[in-house]
């Protein structure tokens, strides 16, 4: 398989599975966005093993072996690995976040409840903050250390947003990510979640976690000016579109059980136009 075909398949995976991510990063130069698609395909592959695999434990072990072989210099004739090899040859990539991503997906196979918020944040780091760390060598190669904490906070914020949006879907898979310590404080039981009860207590719990997510968005955004302009547009676009999910849930009266909150194409377009105007002023 040639590299052009490999990247094209990675792009197709990204466009199909995450329109928000794809829309935000399509503004990058060709080589950079190809690298982004390859990284997304890696993350998608391991995530799908856990959520949709018929034998997820076995498949994840096999994927981890493939990753170890990749690090050893072997590249399978599979579009994702072929594209990722090209990424590692073009950019000064750090393997650690990729390994931590696999670690986070392992957690989903064995951990279905989180007692504390700090435990949940570790999970958020592994499955989401790692993505930001993977992208830094591409988006801001000369500012990686300065942007590291911002990338980690942004990943945590985005994963908390996912958790708040997907309470019902996660429950259907037997998972509750809402920290038990806070469920207890607000008086929300697992039975409430299982039966999809949107009570005042649930709304208060939801908003408490949403506030934590929004604080992390704010912390992350404080460093966005360190990104080169095209990358700044992409990161800011992805951030605004993700933050909007929280607003959509509120508009839907916090029903995260019967409805899936998504940002409309009209709203996405308006957000990107807003950022475009800001970047013109910066430039």
TrEMBL record:
Question: Which GO molecular function entries does the Swiss-Prot or TrEMBL record give?
Answer: geranylgeranyl diphosphate synthase activity; squalene synthase [NAD(P)H] activity
Q: Where are the transmembrane segments?
A: 120-140
Keyword Transmembrane helix on this protein?
A: yes
Q: What is its pathway?
A: Carotenoid biosynthesis
Give yes or no: UniProt keyword Transmembrane helix.
Answer: yes
Q: Provide the alphabetized UniProt keywords.
A: Carotenoid biosynthesis, Membrane, Transferase, Transmembrane, Transmembrane helix
Class of enzymatic activity (EC top level): transferase
What Gene3D superfamilies does the annotation carry?
A: Farnesyl Diphosphate Synthase
Which E.C. number(s) belong to this protein?
A: 2.5.1.32
Note one Pfam family from the annotation: SQS_PSY
A biological-process GO annotation: carotenoid biosynthetic process
Spell out the InterPro entries in the cross-references: Isoprenoid_synthase_dom_sf, Squ/phyt_synthse, Squalene/phytoene_synthase_CS, Trans_IPPS_bact-type, Trans_IPPS_HH
Q: What is the protein name given in its UniProt record?
A: Phytoene synthase
Look up and give the organism this protein is from. Answer: Anoxybacillus tengchongensis
């Amino acid at each position: 398989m040639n590299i052009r075909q490999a990247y094209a398949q990675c792009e197709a995976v990204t466009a199909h599975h995450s329109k928000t991510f794809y829309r935000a990063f399509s503004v990058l130069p060709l080589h950079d966005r190809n690298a982004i698609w390859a990284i997304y395909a890696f993350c998608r592959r391991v995530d799908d093993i856990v959520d949709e695999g018929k034998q997820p434990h076995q498949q994840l072990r096999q994927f981890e072996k493939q990753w170890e072989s990749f690090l050893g210099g072997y590249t399978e004739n599979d579009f994702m690995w072929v594209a990722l090899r090209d990424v590692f040859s073009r950019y000064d990539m750090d393997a650690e976040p990729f390994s931590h991503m696999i670690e986070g997906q392992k957690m989903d196979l064995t951990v279905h409840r989180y007692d504390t918020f700090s435990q949940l944040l570790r999970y958020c780091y592994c499955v989401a903050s790692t993505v930001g760390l993977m992208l830094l060598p591409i988006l801001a190669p000369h500012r990686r250390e300065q942007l590291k904490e911002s990338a980690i906070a942004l990943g945590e914020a985005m994963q908390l947003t996912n958790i708040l949006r997907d309470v019902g879907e996660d429950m259907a898979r037997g998972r509750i990510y809402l920290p038990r310590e806070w469920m207890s404080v607000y008086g929300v039981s697992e039975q409430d979640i299982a039966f999809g009860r949107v009570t005042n207590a649930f709304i208060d719990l939801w908003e408490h976690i949403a506030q934590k997510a929004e604080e992390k968005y704010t912390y992350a955004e404080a460093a966005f000016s360190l990104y080169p302009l095209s990358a700044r547009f992409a990161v800011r676009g992805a951030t605004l579109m993700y933050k909007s999910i929280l607003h959509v849930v509120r508009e839907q009266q916090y029903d995260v059980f019967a409805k899936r909150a998504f940002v409309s194409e009209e709203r996405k377009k308006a957000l990107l136009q807003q950022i475009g105007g800001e970047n013109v002023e910066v430039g």
